[in-house]
């Protein structure tokens, strides 16, 4: 079971995620997020990643922002969390060392089916909860959904389960969805944008325990 800790914005938070054994570290370069960092801040934090992979989380970035993220951070993965087209996702591959993930908001089976439009254009998906009506950002609200909907996903590209996860529910969410990777932000925080080292460790431990049970 692989784990991404997202919305890291301080050295202590990064160090906690690395110490817990997270596979991916997410840095949100989007000003409206309470977890936002600048490209230069993301770069400084990503240099603490150890063996983990760095993920730049962007929302409808233009070429200028992509270039800045590449120059400052050199991300392993770019996660696109806006309304990016399949062609735009393919363009973004030039700015990441390993590939591009597309985030898709889910509240019904039709949302899972949308992933087919991106096949061959992205290297993975992040299936997250759809934001509430009128929201000013696409993710990080701490809301869940029917994780069992992901059982209908039959694409070639792997996916991460995201949205409303925490140490208490991640095992059930994995069982419902069949996920092999999970992504958490608000579920390991003491307040919006404030990561809690104990919650990070508990989340990684809980997710990994499910992976061990599947062997």
TrEMBL record:
GO terms for biological process: L-tryptophan biosynthetic process. It catalyses: N-(5-phospho-beta-D-ribosyl)anthranilate = 1-(2-carboxyphenylamino)-1-deoxy-D-ribulose 5-phosphate. It is an enzyme of class 5 (isomerase). Residues 3-205 form the N-(5'phosphoribosyl) anthranilate isomerase (PRAI) domain. Belongs to the TrpF family. Pathway: Amino-acid biosynthesis; L-tryptophan biosynthesis; L-tryptophan from chorismate: step 3/5. Keywords: Amino-acid biosynthesis, Aromatic amino acid biosynthesis, Isomerase, Tryptophan biosynthesis. The keyword Amino-acid biosynthesis applies. GO terms for molecular function: phosphoribosylanthranilate isomerase activity. Its EC number is 5.3.1.24. This is N-(5'-phosphoribosyl)anthranilate isomerase.
């Amino acid at each position: 079971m692989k784990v991404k800790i997202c919305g890291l914005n301080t050295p202590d938070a990064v160090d906690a995620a690395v110490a817990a054994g997270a596979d991916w570290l997410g840095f949100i370069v989007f000003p409206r997020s309470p977890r936002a960092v600048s490209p230069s801040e993301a770069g400084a934090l990503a240099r603490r990643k150890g063996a983990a992979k760095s993920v730049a989380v962007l929302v409808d970035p233009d070429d200028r922002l992509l270039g800045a993220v590449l120059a400052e951070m050199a991300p392993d993965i770019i996660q696109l969390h806006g309304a990016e087209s399949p062609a735009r996702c393919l363009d973004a591959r030039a700015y990441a060392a390993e590939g591009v993930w597309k985030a898709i908001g889910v509240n019904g089976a039709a949302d899972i089916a949308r992933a087919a439009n991106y096949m061959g254009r992205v290297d993975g998906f992040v299936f997250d909860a759809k934001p509430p009506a009128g929201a000013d950002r696409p993710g990080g609200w701490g809301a869940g959904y029917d994780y069992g909907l992901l059982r209908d996903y039959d694409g070639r590209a792997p996916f991460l389960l995201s949205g409303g996860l925490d140490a208490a529910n991640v095992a059930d969410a994995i069982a419902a969805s069949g996920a092999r990777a999970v992504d958490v932000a608000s579920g390991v925080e003491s307040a919006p944008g404030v990561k809690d080292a104990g919650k990070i460790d508990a989340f990684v431990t809980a997710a990994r325990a499910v992976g061990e049970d599947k062997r």
